[in-house]
Amino acid sequence: MNYHQYYQTDVINGPGTRATLFVSGCEHQCRGCYNQSTWNACSGHEFDEQMQQRIIDDLNDDRIKRRGLSLSGGDPLFPANLMAILALVKRVNAECPGKDIWLWTGYTLASLSPEQQQVVDLVNVVVDGKFEQALADPSLVFKGSSNQQIHYLR
Ligand code: SF4
Fold this sequence. Notes:
Layout: E1 2-10, E2 18-23, E3 45-46, H1 49-59, E4 68-72, H2 82-95, E5 100-105, H3 114-120, E6 125-128, E7 149-152
Bound molecules: iron/sulfur cluster.
Protein backbone atom coordinates (compact mmCIF):
# COMPACT_ATOMS: atom_id res chain seq x y z
CA MET A 1 0.00 0.00 0.00
CA ASN A 2 1.03 3.57 -0.63
CA TYR A 3 -0.12 6.73 1.10
CA HIS A 4 -0.29 10.38 0.08
CA GLN A 5 -0.37 12.31 3.33
CA TYR A 6 -0.01 11.69 7.00
CA TYR A 7 -1.13 14.38 9.43
CA GLN A 8 0.35 13.73 12.82
CA THR A 9 -2.09 16.17 14.41
CA ASP A 10 -5.41 16.91 12.71
CA VAL A 11 -8.62 18.54 13.95
CA ILE A 12 -10.59 18.45 10.67
CA ASN A 13 -11.05 14.79 9.72
CA GLY A 14 -13.18 13.37 12.52
CA PRO A 15 -13.96 14.39 16.09
CA GLY A 16 -11.32 15.78 18.41
CA THR A 17 -7.61 15.86 17.80
CA ARG A 18 -6.52 12.92 15.65
CA ALA A 19 -3.83 11.38 13.51
CA THR A 20 -4.96 11.09 9.88
CA LEU A 21 -3.68 8.91 7.05
CA PHE A 22 -4.66 9.51 3.41
CA VAL A 23 -3.92 6.34 1.48
CA SER A 24 -3.37 5.94 -2.27
CA GLY A 25 -5.72 3.93 -4.48
CA CYS A 26 -9.37 4.48 -5.34
CA GLU A 27 -11.55 3.02 -8.08
CA HIS A 28 -14.73 5.06 -7.57
CA GLN A 29 -13.93 8.02 -9.83
CA CYS A 30 -16.52 10.25 -8.17
CA ARG A 31 -17.28 13.36 -10.20
CA GLY A 32 -15.98 16.38 -8.32
CA CYS A 33 -13.55 14.33 -6.21
CA TYR A 34 -11.29 16.72 -4.34
CA ASN A 35 -8.49 14.18 -4.18
CA GLN A 36 -8.01 12.78 -7.66
CA SER A 37 -4.26 12.60 -7.26
CA THR A 38 -4.79 9.69 -4.85
CA TRP A 39 -6.63 7.46 -7.34
CA ASN A 40 -3.47 5.80 -8.65
CA ALA A 41 -2.49 3.12 -6.14
CA CYS A 42 1.17 3.50 -7.14
CA SER A 43 1.27 7.22 -6.36
CA GLY A 44 2.54 8.66 -3.10
CA HIS A 45 4.93 6.96 -0.72
CA GLU A 46 5.32 3.40 0.45
CA PHE A 47 3.48 2.66 3.69
CA ASP A 48 6.23 0.71 5.39
CA GLU A 49 6.83 -0.69 8.88
CA GLN A 50 8.41 2.58 9.98
CA MET A 51 5.32 4.55 9.00
CA GLN A 52 3.05 2.06 10.75
CA GLN A 53 5.14 2.37 13.91
CA ARG A 54 5.06 6.16 13.68
CA ILE A 55 1.25 6.14 13.79
CA ILE A 56 1.22 3.82 16.80
CA ASP A 57 3.76 6.01 18.57
CA ASP A 58 1.81 9.20 17.80
CA LEU A 59 -1.42 7.71 19.13
CA ASN A 60 0.36 6.74 22.34
CA ASP A 61 2.19 10.06 22.71
CA ASP A 62 0.70 11.80 25.76
CA ARG A 63 2.24 15.18 24.94
CA ILE A 64 -0.55 15.71 22.38
CA LYS A 65 -3.60 13.73 23.41
CA ARG A 66 -5.17 12.30 20.26
CA ARG A 67 -8.64 10.79 20.34
CA GLY A 68 -7.89 8.35 17.55
CA LEU A 69 -6.92 7.58 13.99
CA SER A 70 -8.72 8.66 10.81
CA LEU A 71 -8.26 6.64 7.61
CA SER A 72 -9.14 8.35 4.35
CA GLY A 73 -7.78 8.63 0.84
CA GLY A 74 -8.09 7.45 -1.79
CA ASP A 75 -9.99 4.57 -0.29
CA PRO A 76 -8.70 2.53 2.66
CA LEU A 77 -10.95 -0.32 1.48
CA PHE A 78 -9.49 -0.35 -2.05
CA PRO A 79 -8.75 -4.07 -2.50
CA ALA A 80 -4.98 -3.68 -2.80
CA ASN A 81 -4.91 -1.72 0.48
CA LEU A 82 -6.73 -4.25 2.59
CA MET A 83 -3.79 -6.27 3.89
CA ALA A 84 -1.90 -3.22 5.11
CA ILE A 85 -5.00 -1.52 6.53
CA LEU A 86 -6.05 -4.68 8.35
CA ALA A 87 -2.60 -4.96 9.93
CA LEU A 88 -2.74 -1.31 10.98
CA VAL A 89 -6.20 -1.41 12.55
CA LYS A 90 -5.30 -4.62 14.39
CA ARG A 91 -2.26 -2.92 15.88
CA VAL A 92 -4.19 0.22 16.85
CA ASN A 93 -6.79 -1.90 18.64
CA ALA A 94 -4.16 -3.99 20.41
CA GLU A 95 -1.59 -1.32 21.24
CA CYS A 96 -3.49 1.96 21.56
CA PRO A 97 -6.16 1.45 24.23
CA GLY A 98 -8.93 4.03 24.29
CA LYS A 99 -8.28 5.31 20.76
CA ASP A 100 -11.02 5.17 18.14
CA ILE A 101 -10.73 4.56 14.39
CA TRP A 102 -12.79 6.42 11.79
CA LEU A 103 -12.71 5.24 8.16
CA TRP A 104 -14.00 6.95 5.00
CA THR A 105 -14.82 4.77 2.00
CA GLY A 106 -16.60 5.10 -1.33
CA TYR A 107 -18.03 1.60 -0.93
CA THR A 108 -21.32 1.24 0.90
CA LEU A 109 -21.47 -1.01 3.94
CA ALA A 110 -24.03 -3.18 2.16
CA SER A 111 -21.64 -3.90 -0.72
CA LEU A 112 -18.50 -4.95 1.14
CA SER A 113 -16.52 -8.07 0.32
CA PRO A 114 -15.66 -10.41 3.22
CA GLU A 115 -12.11 -8.99 3.21
CA GLN A 116 -13.37 -5.41 3.44
CA GLN A 117 -15.81 -6.43 6.17
CA GLN A 118 -12.90 -7.84 8.19
CA VAL A 119 -11.42 -4.33 8.36
CA VAL A 120 -14.75 -2.67 9.09
CA ASP A 121 -15.31 -5.07 12.00
CA LEU A 122 -12.28 -3.50 13.67
CA VAL A 123 -13.09 0.19 13.24
CA ASN A 124 -15.44 2.33 15.30
CA VAL A 125 -17.03 4.59 12.71
CA VAL A 126 -17.41 4.29 8.92
CA VAL A 127 -18.47 7.11 6.63
CA ASP A 128 -19.60 5.32 3.47
CA GLY A 129 -20.71 6.01 -0.06
CA LYS A 130 -19.35 7.78 -3.11
CA PHE A 131 -19.18 11.55 -3.26
CA GLU A 132 -22.19 12.73 -5.28
CA GLN A 133 -21.63 16.19 -6.66
CA ALA A 134 -25.37 16.87 -7.03
CA LEU A 135 -25.81 16.15 -3.32
CA ALA A 136 -22.75 18.04 -2.13
CA ASP A 137 -23.32 20.28 0.86
CA PRO A 138 -20.49 22.17 2.57
CA SER A 139 -22.50 22.44 5.78
CA LEU A 140 -22.38 18.66 6.31
CA VAL A 141 -20.09 17.50 9.09
CA PHE A 142 -17.50 14.80 8.31
CA LYS A 143 -19.02 14.05 4.89
CA GLY A 144 -19.17 15.74 1.52
CA SER A 145 -22.57 14.82 0.13
CA SER A 146 -25.89 13.96 1.73
CA ASN A 147 -26.04 10.39 0.36
CA GLN A 148 -23.04 9.46 2.50
CA GLN A 149 -23.80 8.05 5.93
CA ILE A 150 -21.97 8.01 9.22
CA HIS A 151 -22.21 4.57 10.83
CA TYR A 152 -21.30 4.33 14.51
CA LEU A 153 -20.42 0.64 14.73
CA ARG A 154 -18.62 0.05 18.02
S1 SF4 B 1 -14.23 7.73 -3.02
FE1 SF4 B 1 -13.26 9.63 -2.32
S2 SF4 B 1 -11.19 9.58 -3.20
FE2 SF4 B 1 -12.39 8.06 -4.29
S3 SF4 B 1 -13.15 9.13 -6.11
FE3 SF4 B 1 -14.74 9.27 -4.54
S4 SF4 B 1 -14.34 11.22 -3.49
FE4 SF4 B 1 -12.50 10.67 -4.64
